[in-house]
Amino acid sequence: MNLKFFYLTGLIFVAALSRLLPHPSEFTPVIAISIFAGATLSSKKEAILIPILSMFISDIFLGFHSLLPVVYGSMALIAILSFYFLKQNTIFKTFVVGFSSGLIFYIITNFAVWVSSGMYALNFSGLIECYTLAIPFFRNSLASIFVYSIILFSTSAILERYTKKFAPSRI
Questions:
Q1: Which of 85, 124, 86, 127 is nearest to 106 (CA)?
Q2: pLDDT value at residue 166
Q3: What's the angle, vertex CA 140, arms to CA 136 and CA 144, rounded to 5?
Q4: 168: helix, coil or strand?
Q5: What local confidence, expressed as pLDDT, does residue 149 receive?
Q6: Rounded to an integer, what distance in angstroms lies between the CA atom of residue 40 and that of residue 86?
Q7: What is the rounded distance in angstroms from the CA atom of residue 119 to the CA atom of residue 22?
Q8: Which end of the chain is more exposed for a tag (fewer CB within 10 A), N or C?
Q9: Which of 122 and 165 is assigned the larger pLDDT?
């Protein structure tokens, strides 16, 4: 294993543990972690498993709930999307993938809430009500995607420059 793998996975775990700090509702690193892992880790398997493992560890402290498989599945889908679309990473591509990932997460997880929570009528108007009431959470989620993505990608770039600058030269 190389140094880059360790600092990338370290960033992912630190971001996941930041969920333990007080924060506004849905302002978490969940989606940004999956985007970052997909964009930076070298294998698809790592890009899926490392974010889920990091989230699982933070969920040990936060508690488990019945929709975790849906959340983890959404994270895996986002990591795969990022793995394929962000290998030649640009700010524009990251923005598009970030917004798309937020939308994917919103659609999938709120559909699961509609189906399983018993809070909404299981008809079209109940589905619309579920999605409508989730809009404030979606806004926070989008904001967190962009804030955490900036932090993760910027920190990674700084660490990469720093490790290259101070890496021992080969003869």
A1: 127
A2: 57
A3: 165
A4: coil
A5: 96
A6: 8
A7: 27
A8: C
A9: 122
The SS3 call for residue 92 is helix
What is the spatial distance between Cα 118 and Cα 123, in angstroms, rounded to a whole number?
Answer: 12
Model confidence at 171: pLDDT above 80 = no
Q: What local confidence, expressed as pLDDT, does residue 162 receive?
A: 82
Token output for 32: 């940004």
- Whole-angstrom CA distances from 31 to 71, 156, 167 are 10, 17, 32
Token pair of 11 as six digits? 């960033």
Angle (CA) 110-115-116 rounded to 5° is 95
Question: If you search the block for the tokens 């920190």, which residue do you land on?
Answer: 155
List all residues 6 or more positions away from 99 whose beta carbon is below 8 Å from its beta carbon.
142, 145
**Taking 80 as the threshold, does the pLDDT of residue 159 lie above it?**
yes
Determine whether 138 is exposed, middle or buried from the number of CB atoms within 10 Å of its CB (0-12, 13-18, 19+): middle
How many C-beta atoms lie closer than 10 Å to residue 129's C-beta?
15
Where does the pLDDT of residue 125 fall: very low under 50, low under 70, confident under 90, or very high at 90 and above?
Answer: very high
